[in-house]
Structure formats: structure tokens, C-alpha cells
Write a structure and sequence with these properties.
It contains six helices and 27 strands. It is an alpha+beta fold. The strands form seven sheets. A five-stranded mixed beta sheet has the order 1-24-23-22-21, with no helix packed on it. Strand 3 and strand 4 form a beta hairpin.
Amino acid sequence: MNPSPGTATRRRRVRRLVLIVAVALLVLPSLALGIFLTAVSPPVDDFRPQTWSPGPGLEIANELRSPAQVEPLTTESPYGPEDIAVDRAGRVYTGDRDGVIRRVRPDGSTERFAVVGGRPLGLAFDARQNLVVANHGKGLQSVAPDGTVTLLAGEAAGEPIRFANDLVIGSDGVVWFTDSSSRYNTTVLGDVPSYLMPDLIDGRPSGRLLRYDLASGKTEQVLDGLYFPNGLALTAGDALWIAESTRYRILRHTLADGATEVLVDDLPGIPDGLNLDADGSMLVALYDRNSALDSLVLPTALGRQLMIRLPNSLFVNEEDPLTGDILVLDSTGRPRHLHTGLDPAATNVVPHNGRWYLGALLGQPVRSMVAERG
């Protein structure tokens, strides 16, 4: 799907905006800079950013690259169809930012399946065909086939689950899910286009990995101090892959011994959703990185202090959606292919019956493409 000339122009303008604003503010006289920092407050109290310098990005050979060929699945654009789930009958479900779970009809239109409130992000069906939902603002929920909604978990380790994001369900009935940020969420910021961006500018780890046992109803905190843990996937070898979005990397958490290590570092994009494909490879939804952000803002406390005070909508908005790619990794984390040029970027890539279904961050249709495993 190629952008129109107007869209491409707007995209270039927004990309330049980050650089222009960063450079302009960094060269302001100290007095003007001090006035700006005093007059405009950060969106959260106790803003003490942690600096970090990203690497140049994992190199992907040209022969492993090809443009993604996608087509719309829905005839309408749900407001933020972040994740996709497919039931046993092959029906496709997604959520929207209005707290509604939608089911896609054969003609591409959608119908309301359930109202869960909050912002439903991660979706997966359990063995009984209940739809389990990681809901930002609510916690972990279960939706019965008749649409009845039950709250499974609203807190873990004595702390509210403020940012339930993605989930995966094991064959043993254990739901693994991420609680991405205790500092930047709907409770603190209200409804904004992206919570990842301010968390990235903050730079401090405040995310968790949680687990919920469907049989016992017990919720546990498995890991904390994570950098915006986002997408999750279980491998055939009983390991959990975790996307740390604000560190541009993927962790591997081994279930047998609880060991956690960095599996893939310095990704060529910012990772969102993870899913295991039918051939055992891993599908990673990536947002394109911004070179000005990586080189001028993230490495310095001043750059972060300036950027956090700018409106979120400057960088993530409906008129100029984030672009991205789909990275395919083998079971060891080595790149197998990079499907490029997604406009808008995919938030998740969900395989089913020879196709990949793509979620989106804002008001865009659910898309699909033939599974390309090159």
C-alpha cells in the first residue's frame, strides 16, 4: 500500500519536525530555555529521565528485504484495532479505543461482540473459547461466547494493573501478560495517541511481566523493572519472548528456570507485537525508528526534558500515522526477512490459515497479507 504524495509529504514534515524542534530548542539562549522549562511542566510528577544512547540498528541484508503487500480486511476503520484474535470458526475479532470488541463479518463490516471498557489491547482465545483480553485501564478480562465480561485480575503483587498490554496463553492454561508502565497510562495521562512515546522519553523501567492461572484464579508478578514490556510470544521450547519497546530489543525468559536474557538487541525498529508463526519463526511488528530522536534526544537529559513537554499529538496522530515493517526471526533470533514499507505500521501480526492479520494503532482498517516466509 503506497502512500499518496500528500501523505508522504506530511510524513517527511513530521519527521523533520522532531529534528527541527530538538535542534532549535537545544540552541536557545539559556534564559529562554530556562523560561520554557519553568513555564511548561512535564505530564507527570518527579520526572527524572534516564538517558540512553541507542545503537545504529541491526543490519538486515538487502536480499532479506521486500515490500509488504497488504490489503484491507475490514471495510471500515475501527478506532485503534491493536490486536487480532481468530476463533475456531475462523471469525476475526479486534478491539477499539472506545472499549468495544468487534467481530468482522464476511463482507468486511464489523459488529459489536462485547463492551469491555478501557482500551482493549491484547486478545487471545482460551481452550473454552472465551476471549481473554489484556485491557489498558481495566486489567485482565474474559469474554464468554455470549459476550458476558468477567474481570480476572485487576492487581498483582499488591499493585493495580495499570497498563495490561499483550498476552499469550499456554497449553497449561496459564495466561502470561505484560503491564507496560506504571508511570504513563490512562490513569495519569488520559486518552492520548501513544503512551509508548512519553515512556521512551522518561527512560526509566516501570513495566512488569505477570501471569494468571485460569484454573486457580491466581495472579503473580514474574518480573518487574522492565522497559515498556509489550508483545509476548511462547516458543515451542517453552520460552517466553518479551518485546521491550523502549530499549529496541527482545528478551527471552525461560520458563523452566526463570532465567531472563537479551535475545535480540538494537532492533532496526521499535518492537510492538510478537507472534509465533506456523513454521516456528517469530513475527515482530516494528515502528520505524527516528534518527533525530535516537541521536539528539534520548542520549541527553536536556533533550528529554524538552521533548516530554511537547504535545504527544505532534509525533503520533491520525493525519500522519507511524510507519513500520514486519521482521521475521528464526528460533534463535536471527533475521530471516524484513517486510518493509507498512503505512501505517502494524501493531501486531497474527498468523492464521496461511495469512497474516495486521493490527493498527489509530483509526485504520484491519489488514491482511499472504504469509510470506522467505
